[in-house]
Amino acid sequence: MDALDNVIWQALTTRQADLAESYESARRFPPSVTTLGAFAEATQAGYDSLAGLVGNDPVALFLDSPRTPPSGWTQVAALPLLQMVHDGSESPNHAGGIVELTQNDVPEMLGLTQLTKPGPFGQRTRELGSYLGIRKNGVLVAMAGERLRVPGHTEVSAVCTHPDHLGRGYAASLMRAVMQRIRDRGERPFLHVRHDNERAIGLYRRLGFRDRALLHLSVVRRSRQ
């Protein structure tokens, strides 16, 4: 199995196993970190294990094909998700004006992600890796960071810019800075993006990312009895 196949499972059983909550053949991150979870295989046994782990909490899965969850589950949301991996080996240059985001910045980080919807982001998501930002007049207007970690790879995630500050190159600059950190560790950057987010996909391709796989995000929760 490639390190980027069943990537949430790979993260929770390798480099981020210390964060994993586990039950039989299912794993998840603590909900305060992110809603991402996984099982070894998308079988009835996998969903049964997940049920014993998540209770009534929603969980976001990355599947290799569209699937209707089995009886006892409700699919809250579903959409195709493009997995992209960086082709280059260089550490890309980036502009200045970038700051490291700390625990003190979490309220602003939450506000920015709630406005721009880059993907699941919780109170403790910042613990998954480095997060960098750009401030204008003291206000956080753009950020990017690291999320999933698997052998030889780290995911670039939470790339977002306040709508009032689009078109100024902030996302590209932040991504280059995050990618440089990943490359400096001898790892390869990868990411996930909505398949219909043409603006973001165009940026990622200009930065050297290529399409690797079409995944399917499925947010599920146990059906109420």
Helix/strand-derived class? alpha+beta
Note poorly predicted spans. Answer: none
Lateral strand order in the biggest sheet: 4-11-5-10-9-8-7-6
Q: What's the order of the H and E elements?
A: HEEEHEEEHEEEHEHE
Overall geometry comes to: globular
Rg computed from alpha carbons, rounded to a whole number of angstroms: 17 Å
What does this structure look like?
Helix content is 24%, strand content 35%. It has 225 residues and is an alpha+beta fold. It has 2 domains: 7-80 and 216-222, Aminopeptidase (3-Layer(aba) Sandwich); 84-212, Gcn5-related N-acetyltransferase (GNAT) (Aminopeptidase), CATH 3.40.630. The strands form 2 sheets. Strands 4-11-5-10-9-8-7-6 form an 8-stranded mixed sheet. It has a 3-stranded antiparallel sheet with strand order 1-2-3, sandwiched between helices. A hairpin with a 2-residue loop joins strand 8 (139-150) and strand 9 (153-161). The mean pLDDT is 94.
Compact description:
With 225 residues, this protein is of the alpha+beta class. It has helices spanning 7-13, 44-54, 106-116, 170-184, 198-206; strands at residues 21-23, 26-28, 37-39, 59-63, 73-86, 98-100, 131-136, 139-150, 153-161, 188-194, 209-222. The protein has an 8-stranded mixed beta sheet.
List the helices and strands and how they pair.
Layout: H1 7-13, E1 21-23, E2 26-28, E3 37-39, H2 44-54, E4 59-63, E5 73-86, E6 98-100, H3 106-116, E7 131-136, E8 139-150, E9 153-161, H4 170-184, E10 188-194, H5 198-206, E11 209-222
Parallel strand pairs: 9-10
Antiparallel strand pairs: 1-2, 2-3, 4-11, 5-10, 5-11, 6-7, 7-8, 8-9
